[in-house]
Design goal:
Distance between the termini: 27 Å
Number of strands: 10
Low-confidence stretches: none
CATH architecture of the largest domain: 2-Layer Sandwich
Helix content: 25-40%
Radius of gyration: 22 Å
Largest sheet: 5 strands, antiparallel
CATH class of the largest domain: Alpha Beta
Strand content: 35-45%
C-alpha cells in the first residue's frame, strides 16, 4: 500500500480543434480489467467516432501501463495521453480520447498537441485527489461533548463517519499515519480523556488536491 495521486471522479472534457471534436473521457480504474472495461464502454458509446485513442496506468501487483493510437499515426495519440498521466504521477487512471474528424488534417505535431492538451485540460477540470493510507479509529464521545468535538474536527479537517447517537455518540475517523499518534494525544488532552479511541483498520481515503 502506498499513497498516490489519481483523478477525483469519472468525467469528460470536450474541445474543437480545426473542426475536429476531441472528447477526453477519464475514470478511476483499479485493475487492467477495469481499465479495459471502461475503454470498451466508451468505444461502444462513441461507436461513430473516427478514433478512440487510449492510455491507462494501474497498480495491481506491479504498475501496468498501456496505450493505443487506434488508427492515428504511430506515437501521435496514445503516447501523448500517457505522457500527461506520467508527468502528473497519476495512478489507477484510464483515459479515452475520442476524435470526430472534421475534414482538416492536423499533422503529427498537431495531433500530439491535440491529444495531449485535451487530456491535460480534462484532468485539470475534473480535479485530482490523493489516495492516502490512513489509520482508522472508533470514537465513543459523551453526548454533551459532541458539539465541541464536532467543531474541533471541522477545524482540523477530520471527517466524522458512521455517526451513531444514543447515550453516547459513536463515530469513525481516519488519520494520516505520520500524524495519527499526535492527533490522538491532542484529542485525549483537549477532552480530558473523556473520549475513547479504539484503533481499527488502515484504509485508503481520498483527500482533494488543491489546484496551483
Amino acid at each position: 500500500m502506498q499513497n498516490y495521486k489519481t483523478i477525483a471522479k469519472t468525467g469528460s472534457h470536450e474541445k474543437d480543434i480545426k473542426k475536429s471534436r476531441f472528447i477526453a473521457h477519464v475514470a478511476q480504474t483499479f485493475s487492467e480489467d477495469e481499465a479495459k472495461a471502461f475503454i470498451q464502454k466508451i468505444r461502444e458509446q462513441e461507436s461513430g467516432a473516427t478514433h478512440n485513442c487510449t492510455a491507462f496506468i494501474v497498480m495491481e501487483n506491479v504498475k501496468v501501463e498501456r496505450m493505443s493510437d487506434d488508427g492515428e499515426p504511430s506515437g501521435t495519440a496514445g503516447s501523448p495521453i500517457l505522457n500527461v498521466l506520467q508527468q502528473q504521477d497519476l495512478l489507477n487512471v484510464t483515459v479515452v480520447v475520442t476524435r470526430y474528424f472534421g475534414g482538416i488534417k492536423l499533422g503529427a505535431g498537431g495531433l500530439i498537441r491535440a491529444y495531449s492538451s485535451t487530456t491535460a485540460e480534462a484532468v485539470k477540470e475534473i480535479g485530482l485527489v490523493e489516495n492516502r493510507i490512513q489509520q482508522g479509529y472508533e470514537l465513543t464521545i459523551p453526548y454533551h461533548m459532541f458539539d465541541k468535538f464536532d467543531n474541533y474536527a471541522q477545524k482540523e479537517k477530520i471527517n466524522l463517519e458512521d455517526k451513531q447517537f444514543s447515550t453516547d455518540v459513536k463515530c469513525q475517523i481516519f488519520l494520516d499515519l505520520d500524524s495519527a499518534k499526535q492527533t490522538v494525544q491532542n484529542i485525549k488532552d483537549l477532552f480530558q480523556n473523556q473520549i475513547t479511541l479504539k484503533e481499527t483498520e488502515k484504509n485508503y481515503k481520498q483527500v482533494p488536491i488543491e489546484a496551483n
